[in-house]
Design a protein that fits this description.
Blueprint: E1 4-5, H1 7-20, E2 25-33, E3 37-45, E4 52-57, E5 60-65, H2 66-72, E6 76-81, E7 87-92, E8 98-99, E9 106-107
Parallel strand pairs: 1-6, 2-5
Antiparallel strand pairs: 2-3, 4-5, 6-7, 8-9
Amino acid sequence: MAITLTEAAAHHVARMLEQRGTGLGLRLSTRKSGCSGFAYAVDYADRIEDEDQVFESHGIKVVVDGESLARIDGTEIDFVRSSLLNQGFEFRNPNVTAQCGCGESFSV
């Protein structure tokens, strides 16, 4: 499988990388957190490590460490705006078996 971006997410990441002036793409990982077990961690990918998997979607590289990939393989990342102040990434992860009430953490 793969990690993919919607066009809206790819456009947002491209703008952020352009504003930043450096970076290879988007880094997506997971960390232990919250009441359901794991949370997504999003950052810039400034380098690619040996254990990283690299996916490309709409011209943007998505870099995922090997440990996180098992929890998020098949995920589609979207960028949504519900208002001018409320915007962010939305993760459609087919591996999720439960989420906490606030949507900040998940279990697989």
